[in-house]
Amino acid sequence: MPRLLSRLAGACARRAWWTLIAWGLALLAVGTAAAAEGRELSNVFNISTRAADLAARVQAELPEAAGATGQIVYTTADGAGFTDLQKQQIASELDDVRQVPGVVEVIDPFETEAYRDELMAAFLSGQLPADQLAYYQQVGQAAMGYRVVSTDGTTAVATVVFEYGPYEVPADVKKLVQRAAGWSVGGVRTDFSQELVLDIEALMGPAEIVGVLMAGVVLLIMLGSLVAAGLPLLAAGLGVGTAVLGALAFAGTVHMTSTTLILGIMLGLAVGIDYSLFIINRHRRRLRELADLGALGAPGHGRAGVR
Fold first, then answer.
1. Which residue, 32, 91, 98, 261, is most buried by CB atoms nearer than 10 A?
2. Does 307 map to a domain?
3. 192 and 215 in a common domain
């Protein structure tokens, strides 16, 4: 394999422009195929386990209890308890969240807490009906420690229930929920749980872009040249871009989740930049020894990463 890679690298080095044109045509071809044949990636994971089978059974028999959920956390900015006006404004916003398509129910934390306190008071005073007494004797102890509003009244957690299953909530629905909740209550900070902000449909996010920029800065500092620092990024970008678009082209015929491409991009960029550095390092060391460009490129490519 090293000999084959060395011969291939030598041929590419002697025909540099033709190699770049070939890569450009390959990228254009797979991009066109991905646009024509690709389809939306799936975020549904079907793993045959007892837990997964039980979740599927619950979703089939009790669909209203099997939907995905997310939490909206309200916290007062001044550290004092929620005022009546703030509670009313939060309740109004939660009503707006209920109007979002795909939302089945929104559990108001203040209504839940008031109902809980009422039930617990009736339970402790022995005023519950006989048919409910046995049940609350079993769950009463657990319910004592369950709260959706903190004991100091500064934090409240609302729960949003969707008609979609876990990992199936569309990104635009999540954005509509975020837009509807928490932006007009004065003196209250709003936070969302991971289920409402995580978007696994996006292949490249801010974190990946920042990572590539940081890699470019580190390469520039280490190599001291824009050209030398840009070559690993260019090589990795061409390889990863071609591979990802090629995979997208097959998404129309092969079931593929979005995490497949995300992992491919992460590993491809890491390995591509890493091995490009090995090649550039060997190339620079041999630059003083040989004058033939083809001979320069061959050993670096044929044994990249090998001492």
1. 261
2. no
3. no
